[in-house]
Amino acid sequence: MAAANASATRLGIGPGLRFADARSRAPNVQAEPIDRGADAAALEALGLWATRWTPLSSVDGLDAVRLDITGCARFFGGEGALLNDIGERMAAGGLSCRLGAGPTPGAAWALARYGANPVNVCRRDQSVEDALKDLPAAGLRLTENAERLLRRFGLTRIGQLYGIDRTALARRFASKDAANAVRFRLDQALGIYAEPLVPLRPPPDYAARHSFVEPLISSEGITAALEGLAETLCQQLEQDGCGARDFTLTAFRSNGSASLVSLSTARPVRDVGHILRLFRDRIENIDPGFGIDLLALTATRPDTLETDARALSTDLAASPVDQAALAALADRLTAKLGEGAVRISRPVASHDPARAEILTAFEGQEEDWSKTLQAPRGDRPARLLDQPEIVDVLAEVPDGPPVRFVWRRVPRRVKRAEGPERIAPEWWRTFNSETRARDYYRIEDEDGRRYWVFREGLYQDGRGGNPRWFVHALFS
Amino acid sequence: MAQKGVHEIAETRYGDAGAAAGFALASLNAARPGIWLWIRERALTTDLGRVTGLGAAAFGLDPSRLVFVEAGSSLEALLATEEGVRSGAVSAVITETREASFTATRRLLLASEAGGTPALLLFPHTRSGATAAHARWRISPAPSAPNLFDARAPGAPRWAARLERCRTAPGQAGRQFDLEFDDETLCLRLVSGLVDRPAAARPARPADILPFRKTG
How much is the ipTM here? Predict the structure, then answer.
C-alpha cells in the first residue's frame, strides 16, 4: 500500500502495509490501483496552480509541492497568513494538505510532515535549530537504513543530532558515506548547505494580476479582464523602456487547478492592441471550469524596443519592408497556426542540395544571402522533394544521363539532358566511407517536364554495388 | 498579375507543379518590392516538394525576401492568406493549397482589394469548380528553348499558359500563351508557334559506341 486516507489511518492502515493485512483489519477496505503517472501530472498541475502565491514553484518528490515564498509573504500578511490562505483554498478545492514553512527547504519539509499542527510555521523569532529540535529524525529525509540505525542508537529527535560531530557519527555507521549522508541532510535542514529550487516555469520578468471576488465562468469575462491586464503590463514595460517576446496568460481556477496560454512574438512587443489580438483566438482554449478567481498575465524575455516612433512612410525608412507590420503579421500567423509555422530560409555553406539551406523560425531577422548568391553554382530547381525518390533508369552508357526512367509508376522518355554536376559527399561531416558522390543531371522528358535526377556513385567505384538513380527535384 | 487581385494558377496534369511554381515565381518579378509570403499546405509539399530559396534565386528573386508559412490544412492556408493580404505588410501572397471554395476566394478578393495586396493561388490539377478569382491560368510545361551552348541540354523554361477564365477581360479567355522565361531580363517572353517543333536532333553517335539493347 502506498497511501491511505484519514479514516483508514485511524484503523492503523498506512503505507508499507500489505493489502491482505489491511483487509484483515478492515474487511470492507476499498483499494484503487496506483497510477504514478497520473499522480505526477496532478501534482504538477497543483504546482502550477501554486504560482498564484509565488513564481518559484516546483514538484518535490511523489507527494509534495515546494514553494519559495521569500519576499512573497508580506503581500499576504506574513507567512502564517499565507499558509492559512493556501490551506483554505486547497480545502475549497476538496484537497486536504499539510503545510510547513521554514527558513530552509529541509526545515519546511520536516515541519510539514512531522509538525504538531496541520499548518506549521517556523516563527521569525525562532531559530531553525529550535524549530526542528523536537521533530523525529525521520524529518531529515533519510534513507530507511539510516533512520533505523539512528533509532537503534536512541537518536530519535533531530535535536539529539546537533551535538554529535562527524567522526563520532561515522564510527557508528557501516560506512563513512552513510554517516556523511545523515550529516549532509542535517546541514541542509539547518541551512549550512544551500538547496536551490528549479521552478516549473521560469519566473516572469513582468506580471500583472487581477483577482475576482466573484469567480469568472465565461470567456467574455476573461477577454474583458485581459484588456486591463495588458494595459498594466504594458505600462510596466514602458517604464523600463522595453518590450517582451513571451507572454503567458494563467487562469487560476478556484478548485485548485490552473490553465495557461502562452505565445511568443517575433520582435519585442508592448502594444496592448497587438497582445489582445494574439490572445483573442486562444482564450477559447482556457476552460473556466467551476470559475476563475485569479488571472495573471506575465511577460518574459524582455528586450529593448528599437523605436517607438513609426516611420512616416516606408520610403523614408529606405526599405520597402515595414518590419513592424511584418513582425505583427508573423505573430498573428504563429498564434493561429502554431509555433514554428512562419519560417525563413537561411543559407548554409554546403553544396549538398538538401543541406544548402535550412528553414528557421522567423523572428524579424533578415538572412544574408548575398554571399551564397554570388558563389558559382549550377542551376537549382524550383521544387525540391523532401526525400530523393528512387527510380528505375535505363542509361545509354554507364556514366551517362538516363534515356528512360520510371518515376511514380509513369515511364518517361528523356529528350534532353545536361550534366553531370558532381556533388561529392562532405567527408568532414560523415565518417561513413560508404557515402558516394552524386552525379546530378538536369533532364527534360518528351512532355517538356524537367527533373533533377542523380546517380549515387559510379560503376565499380568500390563503394557498394551498382549505383542507384534518384529523382531529387522538379525544375520549372 | 502580381500587382493586384486574386489569381489562380493551376496545373494541367499531375506532375506539372514544377511548371506552375516556376510561372508563379516568374510573375513575382513584377510585384512591387517587399516581402513575399509563400504559404503552403503540408500535404502538397510532401507530395510535390517545396520551393527553396535557391530555386527562387534562379528566377532573380532575393531569397531573404521570401517568408514561408506551413499550414496543416486548406482552411489554415486560406486563413493565413487572408491575414497576409489584409495586413499590408507583404507585397504578394502565394498560396499552395488543394481546395478553396467560392466563398473563401470571394473573401480573399475583398481582402485583397481592401489591402491592395495581390494573392496568387496555386492549385493542383484535381481542383475544379468556380472561384471568385480574377483569372485562372492553366499551366503545362512545354519543350524548353534551344540551348545555345549545348544542343542536347534543356534551355530556358517554356510553358503553355492557357487563360481559362478572365473576369477583367472576358474576351481573352481561352487564349493560350506560349511563354518563355528569360533569365537575363527576368521577364516572360511570348514565343512563336515554332515551339512545337521537335527538339534538335542529336549529333550522330560515333560508330564504336553501341546502344544497350534489350535481349532475351
Answer: 0.85
